[in-house]
Design a protein that fits this description.
The chain has eight helices and four strands, in the order αββααβαααβαα. The chain is mostly helical. Helix 2 runs antiparallel to helix 3 and helix 2 packs antiparallel against helix 4.
Length: 240
């Protein structure tokens, strides 16, 4: 069942500012655009709730791709499996800090998990958005003197940037094409308009809902961690 939280209330609750200016390269994709807005800094609960929502979407997205019909090589599927594990680790960290995802089911373009080019483009959009949002969180935590959180969100942003590079490679585009990670948002909540079609199905051609991974599905991929070479001993700075 679709989350009953309305778009208007979600945006209000997340503190998204009105009058956002469209940016970036994806304005023609399903009516999605990125936005940069000036507003008061998000509070910590807003940041971690929005981050948990994004991470739950990411685990849902990657698992559906792993189980989809993209025709990927084994190495590329392994990229997705280790990406899934990283997003799940991020989600579990956020939940341990008191985060609650605001949506628990998601929507996607109809052919997302059978069209490699579309999958690559949409995943790049999502990962670019995640990087920008975590950089916004890093700015906020740094300004507040919350060093442990600032370093941790920078750590997560770095990993999301790795995912962005890998999905560009899957789509046949040069992976390392920029000198700096894109800083598109002043606040984490400024990312909400970009992600909203995935949350409420409002994008043209979106279908769903797609349910998030079950405990058994998570455990099955975790069981492959060692074989995949995924190093889960690396800790977030906030836990060190």
């Amino acid at each position: 069942m679709k989350n009953q939280l309305s778009r208007r209330n979600f945006l209000k609750g997340a503190g998204a500012a009105a009058g956002a200016v469209a940016l970036a390269n994806y304005t023609s994709l399903f009516g999605i655009s990125t936005a940069f807005a000036q507003a008061a800094d998000d509070d910590t609960q807003t940041i971690i709730n929005l981050a948990a929502t994004a991470e739950l979407f990411a685990t849902t997205h990657y698992l559906a791709a792993i189980n989809g019909d993209l025709g990927l090589a084994e190495a590329q599927v392994n990229y997705l499996k280790t990406g899934f594990l990283a997003e799940q680790d991020h989600l579990e960290l956020l939940i341990s800090l008191g985060a609650t995802p605001l949506f628990t089911e998601f929507y996607v373009p109809e052919t997302l998990f059978s069209d490699v080019e579309l999958f690559s483009q949409i995943t790049e959009l999502a990962e670019t958005t995640f990087v920008s949002a975590y950089l916004a969180a890093t700015r906020i935590f740094a300004a507040a003197g919350a060093t442990a959180f600032a370093v941790t969100t920078a750590q997560i942003a770095a990993v999301e940037a790795e995912h962005r590079a890998l999905v560009r490679q899957i789509g046949g585009r040069i992976a390392n094409n920029i000198p700096y990670a894109q800083y598109q948002f002043n606040n984490v909540s400024d990312a909400v308009p970009v992600l909203m079609p995935f949350l409420d199905g409002s994008g043209e051609g979106f279908v769903g809902p797609v349910a998030p991974p079950t405990a058994d599905e998570i455990a099955a991929i975790r069981a492959e961690s060692e074989a995949l070479g995924y190093d889960n001993t690396v800790q977030p700075f906030a836990a060190m």
